[in-house]
């Protein structure tokens, strides 16, 4: 009955597209039609205009929307956006309530029946991840949920083929999964293959895929130096994504150079939905044309904004701020998550507090600030460098950073590595001169070669703040085990108080 119901009631229905997940209203209506066959015609008949009123929609939504897989992602009506149409199932059920055929109590009873008989299925945007601990990962929200072994075993069965599985779950756990939009309900079998395997230890959670060293700008601080013409072959890029997904990776950072200049960007972008990872585009924003934004298959776009107009343009060139902000707003209008990355330099210090307030008002999900390392082109512009004691306080303006990347007890990069445009694998882009190997050997082979220094090996291991700063950036600390001057300044510590040890290769 679902296609007939959706065709009549749903503003989002496409006859040529069959989706594995249906809204909870449509699933409940299917069960109601099975219970009361005489109502099937009524459920699939148009609701007389103007349709169900706000009171009936709110009453039906209070029962059905709270447990719908689309509630957190993709449903403007559930988010309360003005003028957003309800889904077809909710509209049909609200129509019956308005006509007195269903009460709130009987709809609640129908929901419980639907839950007890439905096929449970992990939502399409959710994956099982076997990291150091078993987890669920919501790649649309970029949220990682740790679960125990019993819960993981239950979730492995939520593949859309086991009816009545809800009766085997601990009620509070099941309710939480539904409220977080991690589970979908299906009225008929809706098989989904759930892939997982134990990740290497430490797990590789974040992969920076540097697709190209081409760039349309000549930023004064760029650690890569002058732009080039090297491109990661598409086959190698896709092989890296496949292996990263298999290694239980969470988030791929598509960078460059400027990744939108990657000659095979359209092919790679179109293939991104094949991988159960969160794809984040790292861009200078100037090439985010309306057409490119419409075509994006990433979950997030991070735009580099290095201040307001004056400060940004001083670093990246006249007119670049205006173009970058226009691109950022197009991405927001498309409904994709937007984050902003900012480098602290002498030309933007007076703008940063105002910038932070503006970004919050704009609805940016995350703002990261950093102090550039003196590498590449920044060495030619010493006037842009800010002393550590002056730069460090501005790092506290950042907001919205994801919490599942920290690794207590370990220095930076515990869960991150980078693939360079020539296929070499490195600790990060700053360590291109010390590669771990090449993609041809396999991403996991290269990853296992990376030595991860514990905090206890640092020269500053005895510092009272080391658990908070975790040693800072190893490259900025001189590629060894010494203190990071920016982190020392942030916590009011004199790095000279720590003695020197022999540097170790990592």
How would you summarize what this structure contains?
With 506 residues, the protein is of the alpha/beta class. Helices cover 31% and strands 14% of the residues.
Which labels suit this protein?
506 residues, alpha/beta, TIM Barrel, 4 domains, nine-stranded mixed sheet, three-stranded antiparallel sheet, 31% helix, elongated, disordered C terminus
Summed up, the helix count is: 18
CATH topology of the largest domain: TIM Barrel
Helical content (DSSP H or I, runs of 4+): 25-40%
Q: Spell out the CATH superfamily of the largest domain.
A: Aldolase class I
Largest sheet, spatial ordering of strands: 12-11-10-9-8-7-13-14-15
Q: How many discrete structural domains?
A: 4
Overall residue-averaged pLDDT value: 91
- Protein structure class: alpha/beta
- Give the second-level CATH assignment, the architecture of the largest domain: Alpha-Beta Barrel
Shape: elongated
- Summarize the main sheet: 9 strands, mixed
Distance between the termini: 60 Å
Low-confidence stretches: 501-506
What share of the residues does DSSP label as strand, in percent?
5-15%
The total beta strand count reads: 15
Output the CATH class name of the largest domain.
Alpha Beta
Radius of gyration: 26 Å
């Amino acid at each position: 009955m679902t296609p007939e119901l959706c065709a009549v009631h749903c503003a989002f229905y496409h006859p040529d597209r069959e989706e594995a997940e249906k809204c909870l209203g449509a699933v409940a209506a299917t069960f109601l039609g099975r219970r009361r066959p005489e109502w099937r015609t009524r459920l699939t008949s148009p609701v007389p205009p103007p349709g169900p009123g706000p009171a009936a929609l709110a009453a039906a939504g209070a029962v059905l929307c709270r447990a719908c897989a689309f509630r957190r992602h993709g449903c403007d009506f559930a988010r309360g956006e003005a003028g957003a149409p309800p889904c077809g199932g909710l509209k049909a059920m609200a129509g019956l309530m308005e006509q007195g055929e269903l009460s709130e109590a009987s709809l609640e009873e129908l929901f419980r029946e639907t839950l007890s008989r439905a096929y449970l299925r992990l939502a399409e945007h959710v994956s099982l991840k076997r990291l150091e601990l078993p987890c669920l990962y919501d790649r649309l929200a970029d949220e990682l949920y740790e679960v125990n072994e019993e819960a993981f075993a239950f979730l492995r069965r939520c593949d859309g083929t086991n009816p009545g599985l809800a009766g085997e779950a601990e009620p509070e756990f099941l309710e939480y999964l539904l409220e977080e939009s991690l589970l979908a309900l299906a009225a008929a079998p809706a098989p989904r293959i759930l892939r997982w395997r134990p990740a290497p230890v430490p797990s590789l959670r974040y992969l920076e895929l540097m697709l190209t060293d081409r760039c349309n700008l000549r930023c004064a601080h760029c650690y890569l130096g002058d732009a080039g013409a090297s491109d990661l072959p598409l086959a190698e890029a896709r092989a890296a994504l496949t292996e990263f997904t298999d290694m239980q990776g969470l988030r791929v950072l598509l960078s460059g150079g400027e990744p939108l200049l990657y000659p095979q960007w359209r092919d790679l972008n179109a293939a991104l939905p094949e991988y159960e990872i969160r794809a984040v585009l790292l861009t200078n924003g100037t090439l985010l044309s309306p057409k490119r934004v419409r075509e994006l298959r990433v979950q997030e776009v991070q735009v580099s904004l290095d201040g307001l107009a004056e400060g940004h343009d001083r670093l990246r060139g006249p007119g670049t701020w205006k173009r970058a902000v226009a691109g950022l707003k197009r991405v927001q209008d498309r409904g994709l998550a937007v984050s902003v990355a900012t480098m602290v330099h002498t030309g933007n210090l007076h703008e940063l507090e105002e910038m932070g307030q503006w970004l919050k008002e704009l609805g940016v999900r995350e703002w990261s600030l950093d102090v550039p390392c003196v590498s590449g082109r920044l060495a030619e512009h010493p006037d842009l460098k800010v002393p550590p004691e002056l730069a460090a306080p501005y790092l506290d303006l950042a907001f919205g950073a994801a919490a599942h990347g920290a690794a207590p007890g370990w220095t930076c990069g515990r869960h991150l590595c980078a693939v360079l445009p020539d296929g070499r694998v490195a600790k990060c882009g700053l360590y291109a001169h010390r590669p771990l190997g090449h993609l041809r050997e396999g991403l996991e082979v290269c990853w296992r070669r990376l030595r991860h220094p514990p905090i206890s090996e640092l020269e500053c291991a005895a510092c009272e703040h080391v658990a908070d700063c975790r040693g800072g950036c190893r490259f900025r600390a001189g590629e060894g085990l010494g203190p990071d001057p920016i982190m020392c300044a942030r916590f009011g510590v004199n790095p000279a108080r720590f003695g020197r040890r022999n540097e170790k290769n990592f």
